[in-house]
């Protein structure tokens, strides 16, 4: 595919790296010449310096024959206008736009939906095929972690019917120290599959005789209502969370408080007086506090030692890290920390900070969903981009498809790839060798090595005989 990426920041640069490694023709536009040189020295991509929304800049970048435009600059307005210019002047087939401001997102009539009209001349609103809101994605990610105590990552497929969960196996869990085959004996009524195990950052492909060790990062897949039962096998049962403390009242902090306040006791700490006034007017049950989270006295005064989850979600990585470390030392049970700089994530997660959340990786997974070949409806980037989980729909018949009509043990999967589950007409079928894939099945795969993604995509592409 020929793809234009507008914006060479963290998301744009990481996305360019992901897509360039998969043999796409990538051009990235930005006004920062130094950043563009840095990316061009490292990646096999083309760069164009200029204002991303200008028609001349887009034409210079090749918008006339581009398959897709992905606008992820730091300006919502630039992203929206660039999509409109590219669609109207250059008839770009697919435009994807990142919009952060809730003032825009609250007005859905500003954006037309892809299927509402095919007549570009009659469009009303910004012609954006796919709207991405990082704040919305990060809020959903944090909410799922709070709803599933003990999880490092919780990913949904097929509208929540099935979930892929990552957690740290700890001493005291019934399965720790046993072979995986013991899980079926111990829980005969619950079907689940371990998709991958990471031990000291090394991937282990799970077999029946694989022994779970203390400290293993285990990815397992199960129907949504079986998740908590399986988690209890890998770590001692964690009590449900009740008290949530949010540090930072920006877009993410406000969204998170609004999402949680009806089910949890929520406190939100924000240093700006004007922002506190606005938050207290818009949040119904959340206790809004004014102050600095780095102030030990404020945290002690608010009984931080009784807090179940401390979420640091300001725009300042260093402030998030320091506030999280302080909260943990003062007795907070679990600490979730928003980290924008991807270089920090590996450094801090797993120590005093329980889970480091990267908005870039959360956003990129959503973007990759629309870039993958074949009918891919869900992509989740895992392990800081090294691994990937995808949901693909099987089409065709036994003549035109490499997967339809075949038993799972007959499919020639790339090395390091496992099929975790199949969703068939709202029924979750955990993957076992005897299952046959049928047309329109949603197949959930886990890739330890994401460089094999092209081979997986080819498996789900329909041959010409189908047409």
TrEMBL record:
Residues 1-132, 241-357 form the RCK N-terminal domain. InterPro entries: K_uptake_TrkA, NAD(P)-bd_dom_sf, RCK_C, RCK_C_sf, RCK_N, Trk_Ktr_HKT_K-transport. Gene3D superfamilies: NAD(P)-binding Rossmann-like Domain (3.40.50.720), Regulator of K+ conductance, C-terminal domain (3.30.70.1450). Coiled coil: none annotated. The keyword NAD applies. Keywords: Ion transport, NAD, Potassium, Potassium transport, Transport. PANTHER family: POTASSIUM CHANNEL PROTEIN 2-RELATED-RELATED, TRK SYSTEM POTASSIUM UPTAKE PROTEIN TRKA. This is Trk system potassium uptake protein TrkA.
């Amino acid at each position: 595919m020929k793809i234009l990426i507008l914006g060479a920041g963290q998301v744009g640069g990481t996305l360019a790296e992901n897509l360039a490694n998969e043999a796409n023709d990538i051009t990235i536009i930005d006004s920062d010449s130094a950043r563009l040189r840095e990316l061009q020295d490292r990646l096999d991509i083309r760069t164009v310096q200029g204002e991303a929304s200008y028609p001349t800049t887009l034409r210079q970048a090749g918008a006339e024959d581009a398959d897709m435009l992905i606008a992820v600059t730091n300006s919502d307005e630039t992203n929206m206008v660039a999509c409109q210019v590219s669609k109207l002047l250059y008839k770009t087939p697919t435009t994807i736009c990142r919009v952060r401001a809730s003032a825009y997102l609250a007005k859905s009539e500003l954006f037309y939906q892809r299927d509402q009209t095919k007549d570009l001349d009659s469009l009303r609103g910004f012609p954006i095929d796919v709207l991405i809101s990082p704040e919305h994605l990060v809020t959903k990610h944090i909410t799922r972690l709070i709803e599933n105590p003990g999880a490092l990552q919780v990913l949904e497929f097929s509208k929540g019917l099935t979930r892929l969960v990552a957690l740290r196996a700890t001493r005291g869990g019934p399965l720790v120290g046993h072979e995986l085959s013991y899980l079926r004996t111990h829980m005969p009524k619950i079907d689940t599959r371990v998709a991958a195990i990471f031990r000291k950052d090394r991937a282990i492909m799970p077999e029946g005789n694989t022994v779970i060790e203390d400290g293993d990062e285990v990815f397992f897949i199960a129907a949504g209502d079986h998740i908590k039962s399986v988690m209890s096998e890998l770590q001692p049962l964690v009590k449900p969370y009740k008290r949530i403390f949010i540090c930072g009242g920006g877009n993410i902090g406000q969204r998170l408080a609004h999402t949680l306040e009806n089910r949890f006791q929520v406190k939100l700490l924000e240093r700006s007086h004007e922002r506190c006034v606005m938050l207290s007017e818009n949040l119904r049950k959340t206790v809004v506090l004014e102050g600095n989270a780095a102030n030990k006295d404020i945290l002690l005064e608010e009984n931080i030692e009784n807090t179940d989850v401390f979420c640091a979600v300001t725009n300042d990585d260093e402030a998030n890290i320091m506030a999280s470390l302080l909260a943990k030392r003062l007795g907070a049970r679990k600490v979730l920390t928003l980290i924008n700089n991807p270089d920090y994530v590996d450094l801090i997660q797993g120590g005093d900070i329980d889970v480091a959340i990267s908005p870039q990786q959360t956003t990129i997974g959503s973007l990759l969903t629309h870039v993958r070949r074949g009918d891919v409806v869900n992509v989740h980037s895992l392990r800081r981009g090294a691994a990937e989980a995808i949901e693909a729909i099987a089409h065709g018949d036994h003549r035109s498809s490499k997967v339809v009509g075949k038993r799972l043990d007959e499919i020639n999967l790339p090395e390091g790839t496992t099929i975790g589950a199949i969703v068939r007409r709202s029924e979750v079928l955990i993957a076992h060798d005897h299952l046959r894939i049928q047309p329109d099945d949603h197949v959930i795969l886990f890739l330890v090595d994401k460089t094999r993604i092209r081979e997986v995509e080819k498996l789900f592409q329909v041959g010409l005989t189908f047409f």
